[in-house]
Amino acid sequence: MTTKSFTPRELVGELDRYVVGQHKAKKAVAIALRNRWRRQQVSPELREEIAPKNILMIGPTGVGKTEIARRLAKLANAPFVKVEASKFTEVGYVGRDVESIVRDLVEQGLHLVKAEAIENVKTRAHEAAEERLVVMLAHKRLAQDRPTPSAPPPSAPPQAPPGFGNLGQLLMGMPQSQPPPAPPESLITELRTKLRAGSLDDETLELDVADDQMPLVHMFSGMQGMEDLEKGLRDAFSSVPGMKGRTKRRRVKAKEALRVLEAEEAQKLVDQDAIVREAVERTEQAGIVFLDEIDKIAGRQGAQHGPDVSREGVQRDLLPIVEGSTVNTKYGPVKTDHVLFIAAGAFHVAKVSDLIPELQGRFPIRVELESLGKADFVRILKEPKNALTRQYQALLRTEGVEVTITDDAIEAMAEHASEANERMENIGARRLHTILEAVFEELSYKAAEMGGEALTVDRPYVEERLRPILKNEDLSRFIL
């Protein structure tokens, strides 16, 4: 199993590059991740007895709960899924089944392991794909140079039904189609050189590509509560003879054809069974589930009707998965005994004590995240590697517009974000998205016509863009 091992201090340092503040939460997840590595070092007998210490994050929206969990999984190179607890219903009600969490986690593990396996064979796949493409281009060139017959043959021989090929020809007593002769080596060498130089990128040819469309399945796509049915139908159709491996002919350029052929060759080079085994093992030993909005399923005292009726049922359905059980998936049984669960919720109305005691006990580590203020917003706009200010500068640079954002402009945007959170609903750092969009809206609109210009965004610029909104209380509530 391939996972990265950071010390807790190193992991907190990595998280600091993307998430401002919340040191307690970062410390908790860093210890939880390191304990996974420590568990792998102990004797096999004791290893199975060491259960993960699940974490419950408590704090308002927009303070970094989801980002911490997502970055944690990325740093650990582990399968990760984020789910909203409110999307699930008790067994017997219309809605998502809690076991679909584990099925989704395995799928993520499969994508992760498969991507690694394909990366390992990338060079060989490129060479094989290039060779196939060169031969196809050579056959096309020879077909173009071949003289066109003056008249069609008197009667064309009968053809076998599509998809049967030479086997159908043979069974029906028809002459078998002969493969075309191999192109001369000189033509192959010439085309290979031109292809590598990029002079054949716009050359078009017909290519058979995999047809991912399944009949009837698309009807259920996007329908609420139909995700599991859609996946089941796809699996069922893929096992029907004639459905799996279906192809359709497309006319593509050589550059795209090379990419398609590379994917096909990579699929041939990787061991699918080994990928599934590794994906299941990594899911079981390193999977991370971020269970958001857990406060939404915390039943209130005396609520026994309406939308509250299945909340306790969802908790009881979640309990076996969190404490460790075996879930059947299309890749085989998957154990959840060592999957790390990170739950999160604002708990504005409900309290942690409103969760059933058994579920509370499965989240022994409780971390309370602090609300964000002006100083935090200033740091969020300046420090992270993916800061919003850097994103806007990079986007406008694509239009040739160089934007400089001064410190006082950042101070002004942080002030207005903090003020808006105090006057209205506190949505944390997400308020910065609406503030910056209002500030840069006019510039983003005109950027395509400003190629080569340089612009400085300072406090007066920010105030000028936000003043009309801030003056109008109703408008500010609507926009900010």
Quote the average pLDDT: 80
Strand order of the largest sheet: 2-5-8-1-9
If helices are DSSP runs of H or I spanning 4 or more residues, what is the number of helices? 19
Using the CA coordinates, give the radius of gyration: 29 Å
Given helix and strand content, the structural type is alpha/beta
Distance between the termini: 46 Å
Main beta sheet, described? 5 strands, parallel
Which percent range describes the beta-strand content? 5-15%
Low-confidence stretches: 216-225, 302-306
Shape from CA axes?
A: flat
Series of secondary-structure elements, N-terminal to C-terminal: HHHEHEHHHHEHEHHEHEEEHEHHEHHEHH
* Total strands: 11
> How much helical structure, as a percent, in the residues?
40-55%
What does this structure look like?
Helix 6 crosses helix 8. With about 475 residues, this protein is of the alpha/beta class. The relative contact order is 0.14. A hairpin with a 2-residue loop joins strand 6 and strand 7. About 50% of the residues lie in helices and about 10% in strands.
Give short descriptive properties of this protein.
480 residues, alpha/beta, 19 helices, flat
Question: Could you give a quick summary of the protein structure above?
Answer:
With 480 residues, this protein is α/β, with parallel strands linked by helices. It has helices at 8-16, 23-41, 44-47, 65-76, 100-120, 122-145, 165-171, 185-197, 227-238, 254-269, 272-286, 311-323, 357-361, 374-382, 388-397, 407-423, 430-446, 459-471, 473-479; strands at residues 55-58, 80-84, 204-210, 247-253, 288-292, 326-329, 332-335, 340-345, 365-368, 402-405, 454-457.
